[in-house]
Amino acid sequence: MSDFDKQYQELGFYMPAEWEKHTAIWLAWPYEPTTFPDRVDRVEETYIQIIKEIHESEDVNLFVKDRKTKNKVTNMLDEAKVDLDKVHLHIFNYADVWFRDYGPIFVKNRNHELAMLHWEFNSWGDKYDLLLKDKQIPEVIKKKLGIKYFKPGIVLEGGSVDVNGLGALLTTEQCLLNSNRNPHLNKKQIENYLSKFLGARHFIWLKKGILGDDTDGHIDDLARFVNPTTVVCAYQEDKNDQDYGALHENYEILCKSLDQDGNKLNIVKLPMPKVLSDEGEPLPASYTNFYIGNTKVLVPIFNHENDAKALSTLKTLFPTKKVVGIDCVDLVYGFGTIHCISQQQPEP
Would residue 233 show up in a list of annotated catalytic residues for this protein? Predict the structure, then answer.
């Protein structure tokens, strides 16, 4: 064990569950028409709705690319009657909005310390060279917050892992074992990194993700912990649908899975929406891409007949939080929705 590894482990940092209390949410304002063709203005309105809902119970840290955008966003928030004292705008020339993946993962320990992890970001397997500049974002946040900061040294995106805060971690083989991420590491070696830096001691590996997902099967479009013993799972009932096989296989794996203490998990199905691009291609729309805030759960909806069923199911699973549907028909054109664009900063 290196001196760095020993120091980090002695500090006792772990990744808390998303439902643990937050200080803030981190976002980056949308502006790129390549990401959101012919709909940037509509995606901006989606962001206003997200910020308006979530800022009531946690601060909002929002990146904007320049001073002109800062002034524009400030006016839009003011018109929406958002409390501007709870929204902190940070100017930086970032490339895109996918904060979950290029931003830091925040960790904490039992001594009430907060730290951040800066994983390597290679734009989902070197798919988009122009987005590689966003790997700088954790360094920018480090300077703003002045908290402990660690670089594990491997490629990892925040959307590829989900935890219950007690030692169990969900992920997929399609993403973490992909040769376009860390080809020099095998499954056991990757588990060692996740154990060391996120405090995971039990791993649940699903297989692959849904059509249209350019992240190679991120877990936050497939399955999420909603409490320490319950996982919601995206499921396609139509056996003729192209996603049926992959989602059914993931569901069967979950039904046989245990938590970190060897107890059987409660698995709850969430239906799937179907959203197509203007060219008729499938977009990665999923109700599991929700954000769990302090008092609200923001759920992507898609003007689909399954919206109501998904919201009803999640309301049952989050009895102490308000479940709010956010129209993400335009946001999903960028191949992600609410969880993909956000990163929570836990309260230490």
Answer: no
